[in-house]
Amino acid sequence: MARRTREESEKTRQALLQMALEQYALHGIHNVSLKSIAAEAGVTHGALYWHFENRDDLILALCKSITLPFERYYLEQLQAIDQDALKALNAFLIETICHIASHQQSRQAFSLFYARRKELPLHAGIQDTLADEWDVWTGYINRFLKQARKQKQIAKKTKQQCIAEAMLSQVFGVLAVAEYMPEPVVFREMASTTIHNAIRGLDATRCN
After folding, report:
1. Predicted confidence band at 1 (pLDDT cuts at 50, 70, 90)?
2. Taking the domains of the chain in order of start, what are their residue ranges?
């Protein structure tokens, strides 16, 4: 039997990760066996165990290899922050939400790691990775809020960390209803209205 190349091995690993993401996001972690993931990916049960020690190891690998696109849209708005921080924050959150809702892998990652988070194993590596992501994402929002304060768009006494946590939670809340909004345009309108109203409430320069 010919020895598999490194490229073939990596292809198998990626196929297993992709199938695990699809199956876990669709059916839930406790309703999918490792054997069924291997079968759906077209490989043997043994091949799965060659790449991953157990279910927790597989989920940890997923957690480390797939993330939501907050960084992409944060970087896109970096220059705009200096011009109008709240406007840039509005665009950052809306574009991130709409990307996640309209891209299959991002939707699946959100479903598995956030909508179904209570199903995740209490594995230190998994929980720590998700906590680190949360800190990074709230850090992005804090960057906008800090600049908004300098621009006197929000009150000096605004509790930035609390606001950042609340806004990220609101992003996840909007995404939680994405599956009930099959029309992308309708979903974008709903997401835009929700985020715009939240940011509008922070704007200290807005006339009542």
Report:
1. very low
2. 6-65, 70-200
